[in-house]
Amino acid sequence: KKKAFIFDLDGVIVDTAKFHYLAWRNLAKEMNFDFTEEQNELFKGVSRVRSLEILLDLASYDATQEQKDRWLIQKNEEYLKYIKGMDDSEILPDVVRVLDFLEEKNQGIALGSASKNARPILTKLDLLDKFQAIVDGNDVTAAKPDPEVFLKGGEALKIERTDCIVFEDSIAGIQAANSAGMISIGIGEQDVLHEANYVFKDFTEMSNAFLLELIEA
Ligand code: BG6
Ligand code: MG
């Protein structure tokens, strides 16, 4: 059967989650706030604008709109510096094996990311042509945990939501997939992503036999 496999980008295909964290942490320093990796879990999958709101909240910092706009630009400029030299050696282990297997089985493959930088990153990784549809932060109005980004991915491939499978490293993304009525697969730690239907540490732990079961289910 033809299913749709929808991949998140940051933290699933490439380890850019660490760069987002570093950029937010440096911004937090300007608020005299020590932003921890544990708190960063809440930022994964969340849009840039919403992330700043959460950070200001955590830091109990009252910023003007002008200041917020400046910080959003500053955060993205720093993030872009980190990813500037990125190439396909940064693709996470076995991502290409999974993509190739799904392609060989004629499955739908889409990207569902909150990032507005998704296309340039996929281009750097030389992965753009692996995706039949790309839905990113430029295409949605509601951020994860809202299901919009994944629903649009399924629609673009013309696959019903119950036949869509989502790979996600964030709590917000797992919640988005669940509320879309899709199968959610967490990539990361079981204790963080316990709301997912399945959790794997990374793609090296996910066999082709498991993918085949999803296709045939
Ligand atoms: C998500 C990341 O994929 O994209 C978040 O997990 C990030 O950390 C969000 O804030 C928005 O990304 P960008 O590239 O548009 O700032
Ligand atoms: Mg992610």
From TrEMBL:
- Which Enzyme Commission number(s) are listed? 5.4.2.6
UniProt KW keywords = Isomerase
Q: Which InterPro entries does this chain map to?
A: B-phosphoglucomutase_hydrolase (IPR010976), Beta-PGM (IPR010972), HAD-like_sf (IPR036412), HAD-like_SPP (IPR051806), HAD-SF_hydro_IA (IPR006439), HAD_sf (IPR023214), PGP-like_dom2 (IPR023198)
- What's the domain of life for this entry? Bacteria
State the Pfam families in the record: Hydrolase (PF00702)
Q: What class of enzyme is it?
A: isomerase
* CDD domains according to UniProt: HAD_BPGM (cd02598)
Q: Name one GO molecular function term.
A: beta-phosphoglucomutase activity
Task: Tell me if Isomerase is a UniProt keyword of this record.
Answer: yes
Keyword Membrane appears in the UniProt entry:
no
Task: Give the record's family classification.
Answer: Belongs to the HAD-like hydrolase superfamily. CbbY/CbbZ/Gph/YieH family.
What the entry lists under NCBIfam families is as follows:
bPGM, HAD-SF-IA-v3, PGMB-YQAB-SF
Specify the protein name. Answer: Beta-phosphoglucomutase
UniProt source species: Dokdonia genika
